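Figure 6 in text form: structure in, sequence out.
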């Protein structure tokens, strides 16, 4: 009876944890990345402020650090003509569809200056993740139609 109870407890604890796919993704995302390019689904010049912080031009070339064991990270704006410096955030990765491998990615700035007034995070889709590259997508609405922002990272 005692062994049966321990077995049931072990199964219960394991079933509450993250999926293996999400755990594996956290291992891959760990470390330093550079946001090397930002593209849009529609051509044209857009004045977009990303993560309630700054423009596309300022974000390109920024460096990012992910610490998955406590779901925290930092990014640094490096462009001299922008408000440079390090920003802190927390993040979560949640599996959306095991077949496609796309994940729901929530990034929430923790610095007072960059948090939104409602203290909400930014929901992104982790479209691809490998040992060397990562792509996030955020879909917003422009004039009632979907507008996709692609953020492309390389591991450093």
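Output sequence:
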């Amino acid at each position: 009876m005692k062994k049966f109870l321990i077995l049931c407890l072990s199964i219960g604890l394991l079933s509450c944890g993250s999926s293996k796919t999400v755990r594996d993704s956290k291992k891959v995302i760990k470390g330093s990345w550079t946001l090397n390019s930002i593209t849009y689904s529609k051509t044209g010049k857009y004045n977009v402020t990303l993560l309630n912080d700054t423009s596309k031009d300022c974000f390109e070339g920024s460096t990012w650090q992910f610490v998955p064991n406590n779901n925290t990270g930092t990014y640094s704006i490096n462009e001299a003509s922008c408000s440079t410096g390090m920003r802190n955030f927390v993040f979560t990765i949640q599996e959306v569809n095991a077949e496609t491998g796309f994940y729901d990615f929530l990034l929430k700035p923790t610095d007072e200056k960059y948090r939104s007034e409602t203290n909400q995070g930014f929901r992104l889709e982790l479209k691809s993740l490998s040992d060397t590259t990562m792509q996030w997508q955020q879909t917003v609405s422009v004039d009632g139609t979907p507008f996709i922002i692609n953020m492309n990272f390389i591991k450093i």
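Caption detail: The chain has one domain: 19-155.
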